[in-house]
Write a structure and sequence with these properties.
Strand order of the largest sheet: 3-2-1-4-5-6-7
Structural class: alpha/beta
Radius of gyration: 21 Å
Distance between the termini: 41 Å
Helix content: 25-40%
Largest sheet: 7 strands, parallel
Shape: globular
Number of helices: 12
Number of strands: 13
Oligomer: single chain
Strand content: 15-25%
Length: about 375
């Protein structure tokens, strides 16, 4: 347990968009507050996509960083001084410009939430390796994230800890009251970015609509730079009336309500860490049809799931059609999910507590000390 007067934990992220990373951060804040820590959340780019911040506990302090570089560094230096810093960046971002300020921190812990190899060049991985010298711990969320850090980036294994993602247990609400929810529907919960594979999902869903006499809808929760192109694609495929776009829904009760009424959880994502949305689907016992990538297999666990090759729209459609003919009820494995969450919370808190007690780890290196990793 932390001491009577533990240091503040400062969590730094880019923006509070509606996504899995931000849901993880909210869970981290609740764990730390319950354990007696003071929590400050610092948003670097607060100008857009910050809807999920509405769910940040009121006990947590929320701040935004100045935009100009010198003022930002001065602000962050004061904010992190003698405190524990958790870096929670998404999309493989590194933010090297803020790193000078982090030298004032008691300890620096960075979270790697996914396999970012598809977003990286050799030069960016080299930069990552250099910046890792000034971090005390890097937490890989999921096994493939660990391999990315060790194999692609080349981070020393002594700095890497691995957590398997989990989500907080919830009470299942009733299904949504809207008219479309009376019919069978599939649900996909992901930001609308190219690597999430919504284009393939819509093509696969068009095959399903063509091949079944059952009324079926696809409910998509999420927003992003592909929103308009995807809506145009749905119109081109002739499935507009079968697709429900709910946009950037963030309230957990509403998301759970949509999940509660679904026939299945679906994803044709091409790259993932361990998606929180899949863990949320498991809480409702939903069968799943997913692309066969490591993050999906890790997230699905022992839940009923079919895995198809990335972009194989025909295989995806066939699995969904088979699933639609199966009228068996959903059976959530709440015991397993609760155990997974308790383990995650315990291990996460242990990492932060150890950092708070010991300060900078002895293996924090300087550029001169790490010449071996420059070769």
């Amino acid at each position: 347990m932390p001491s009577a007067h533990p240091p503040t934990v400062v969590m730094i992220l880019r923006h509070f968009t509606v996504g899995g990373l931000e849901r993880v951060l909210l869970s981290h804040a609740r764990i730390l507050l319950t354990a007696g820590y003071e929590v400050t959340v610092c948003v670097l780019d607060p100008g857009r996509d910050n809807a999920l911040v509405a769910e940040l506990p009121s006990q947590a302090r929320l701040v935004t960083a100045p935009r100009t570089r010198l003022r930002r560094i001065a602000f962050l230096t004061r904010l992190v001084r003698d405190n524990v810093v958790l870096l929670q960046f998404g999309d493989g971002r590194l933010y090297p410009s803020i790193r000078p300020a982090l030298a004032a921190a008691r300890t620096v812990i960075r979270f790697c939430h996914s396999d970012y190899s598809h977003l990286r060049t050799g030069a960016k991985n080299r930069l990552d390796r250099i910046l890792a010298r000034f971090e005390d711990t890097i937490v890989a969320v999921g096994g493939r994230s660990t391999r990315f850090l060790l194999d692609d980036v080349g981070v020393p294994a002594a700095k890497v800890s691995t957590l398997t993602n989990a989500t907080e247990p919830r009470t299942t609400p009733p299904p949504p009251p809207w008219p479309w929810a009376r019919e069978s529907y599939l649900v996909a919960i992901q930001s609308l970015y190219p690597h999430k594979g919504h284009d393939a999902l819509l093509h696969a869903f068009a095959r399903i609509v063509d091949q079944t006499d059952q009324p079926i809808r696809l409910v998509i929760i999420g927003d992003g730079d592909q929103t308009i192109p995807l809506r145009l694609l749905a119109d081109h495929l002739g499935i507009t009336e079968h697709v429900i776009w709910l946009g950037a829904v963030w309230q957990k009760d509403l998301v759970d309500s949509v999940l509660a009424g679904a026939r299945a959880f679906v994803s044709m994502s091409r790259f993932e860490g361990v998606p929180i949305s899949i863990l949320e689907g498991r809480q409702h016992g939903l069968p799943m049809v997913l692309t066969d990538i490591p993050g999906h297999r890790d997230g699905a666990g022992t839940s009923p799931a079919a895995f198809v090759p990335v972009d194989d729209t025909d295989a995806f459609a066939q699995h969904v059609l088979t699933l639609l003919s199966d009228a068996r009820p959903h059976h959530p494995d709440t015991t397993t999910l609760r155990v997974e969450w308790e383990r995650y919370a315990r291990e996460f808190l242990a990492i932060v507590t150890a950092a708070a007690r010991t300060g900078a780890a002895p293996h924090r290196t300087t550029p001169e000390d790490d010449s071996e990793h420059q070769r």
